[in-house]
Amino acid sequence: MKIAFIAARTDIATQARAKLIAMYGDCDPDDAAIIVALGGDGVMLECLHRVLGRNKPVYGMNCGSVGFLMNEYLEPGLPERIARAQPSHLHPLRMHAITAFGAVEEAFAINEVSLLRQLRQAAKIRIHVDHRERLAELICDGVLISTPAGSTAYNLSAHGPIIPLTANLLPLTPISAFRPRRWRGALLPSTVDVLFEILEPDKRPVAAVADFTEVRDVVSVAVAEDRSITATVLFDPDRALSERIITEQFTV
Q1: How far apart are CA 84 and CA 187, in angstroms?
Q2: What are the structural domains of the chain?
Q3: Which one from 11, 28, 31, 41 is the annotated catalytic residue?
Q4: 24-45 mean pLDDT
Q5: Mean of the per-residue pLDDT values for the chain?
Q6: Number of Cβ within a 10 Å radius of residue 91
Q7: How confident is the model at residue 240 (pLDDT cuts 50, 70, 90)?
Q8: What is the DSSP string of the chain?
Q9: Mean predicted confidence (pLDDT) in 184-205
Q10: Residue from 174, 186, 187 nearest 122 by CA
Q11: Which residues lie closer than 8 Å to 56 by C-beta, 6 or more apart?
Q12: CA torsion angle for 6, 11, 15, 18 (degrees, to 10)?
């Protein structure tokens, strides 16, 4: 089994990588059959972006803090664990952003695309779903649209719902909404096209962020799930991602 080990920039992760390479060898990620990510969810996202569309599964081992997308760190029997692991197939969101200067930026998000105010004043955002205006003006700190895999991350912190992997839904969640004050967001079919239009962009500039790609001073942001691209994450049988998402809903 050709394994490439990629570690977060922490002492714990880099030391773990050195130990595992001594035990199992290492190869270039381009030549590997499996990528093993060592760290937390951040390094897992980096690895998934690196292999998007390249049919290379990623198996994570937690050397960080939360590690929601990671398996337990254990050194013995790694090839056997990988062979028994269960795949979860994730489809990213594609963000198409246009800036106030006419630049066009595209990026993928495994977790979420979020729009955030850049200055002290609240953002004003108009929301279209499938080319139909659904919310004429949202005054807020921001708004995000999440994948099911990302629904337990920023989306949950913003009081959005957790979504099972097989639900084929995308949660749309406001961040500190001022008006409409009682709007709590929406659950959208995964097939929709969502367009965010920034109102008063000169006075109330907004940045768009797809995972860790940030585009500042946007005037419009289109988001849709791209089912032509798949990221595959491997989980130990007792730590399946679908089960973990369900369990998270009963955590108090």
Answers
A1: 34
A2: 3-91+230-248 (3.40.50.10330), 93-225 (2.60.200.30)
A3: 41
A4: 95
A5: 95
A6: 18
A7: confident
A8: --EEEEE-SSHHHHHHHHHHHHHH----TTT-SEEEEEESHHHHHHHHHHHTTTT--EEEEE-SS--TT-BPP--TTHHHHHHHPEEEEE-PEEEEEEETTS-EEEEEESSEEEEEE-SSSPEEEEEEETTEEEEEEEEESEEEEE-TGGGGTHHHHTTPPP--GGG-EEEEEEES--BSTT---EEEETT-EEEEEEESTTTS-EEEEETTEEE-SEEEEEEEE-TT--EEEEE-GGG-HHHHHHHHTT--
A9: 97
A10: 174
A11: 29, 32, 33, 34, 35, 232
A12: 40
141 is catalytic: no
**Whole-number Å distance between alpha carbons of 24 and 70:** 20
- Which pTM was predicted? 0.91
Angstrom distance (rounded) from CA 84 to CA 73: 16
* pLDDT-based confidence at residue 228 (cuts at 50, 70, 90): very high
How many Å separate Cα 173 from the centre of its chain? 14
HEC assignment per residue over 12-49: HHHHHHHHHHHHHCCCCCCCCCEEEEEECHHHHHHHHH
Interval 49-64: pLDDT, tens: 999 988 899 999 999 8
- With contact defined as beta carbons under 8 Å apart, do 145 and 223 qualify? yes
Cα-flanking dihedrals φ and ψ of residue 72, to 5°?
Answer: -65, 140
Cβ contact 173:144 at 8 Å? yes
CB neighbours (10 Å) of residue 112? 26
